[in-house]
Specification:
Layout (H helix, E strand, L loop, with lengths): L3 E8 L1 H14 L11 E8 L3 H10 L6 E9 L4 E6 L1 H14 L5 H4 L5 E5 L4 H13 L4 E13 L4 E8 L4
Antiparallel strand pairs: 1-2, 1-6, 3-4, 3-6, 4-5, 6-7
Pfam families: 2_5_RNA_ligase2
Keywords: Ligase
GO molecular function: ligase activity
Length: 167
């Protein structure tokens, strides 16, 4: 079986810590293998040079601003919904570049989010959604680059970071 690569969008350290803390607080400990993340692609082949080249090229840009626009209850979990036209454009460009290797999930339009709770009952997720929504005010965060991870059937192993250009 070939190795699977996951591609995420990196965010500023202050927000990385903030969302990871929420994840540690609300995600069931036995199923929480990861810090908070923004997944762009779920299943790409590792070792494919065109993917590495595409990510290197895509990172040759300024950081992308994201609006943390709301909180979503999705059945068995809760996530922060993200909005950015620039991110949507980047994702479409990467989808075109990676088309030969995309699974159905990765061919779909991007619905960017940061999951802070999953694998709980609908009731528990609804409660958290209400708590987080009660005082939520939209805010902006900055991204810092792209990152690849090797999927290890549960945990992920960090592979490579592709930092955005900062001036």
């Amino acid at each position: 079986m070939s190795s699977i690569l996951i591609v995420t969008l990196e965010m500023e350290e202050v927000y990385q810590r903030q969302f990871s803390d929420l994840r540690r607080k609300y995600f069931p400990a036995h199923a929480n293998y990861l810090d908070a993340h923004i997944t762009l692609f779920h299943h790409l082949p590792a070792g494919e040079s065109a993917i590495t080249e595409g990510l290197e090229k895509a990172a040759q840009r300024a950081p992308i601003a994201l609006k943390v626009a709301g909180i979503v209850h999705f059945g068995n979990g809760v996530a922060y919904r993200l909005e950015s036209e620039a991110l949507q454009a980047l994702h479409v460009n990467l989808q075109q570049a990676f088309e030969p290797w995309l699974i159905r999930q990765d061919k779909q339009p991007l619905r960017p989010h940061i999951t802070v709770q999953n694998k709980v009952t609908n009731f528990k997720a609804k409660q958290l959604h209400e708590v987080l929504s009660a005082e939520f005010i939209p805010f902006d965060i900055q991204t810092t680059g792209l990152k690849t991870w090797r999927y290890l059937h549960g945990p992920w192993k960090a592979e490579r970071t592709f930092p955005f250009i900062t001036t």
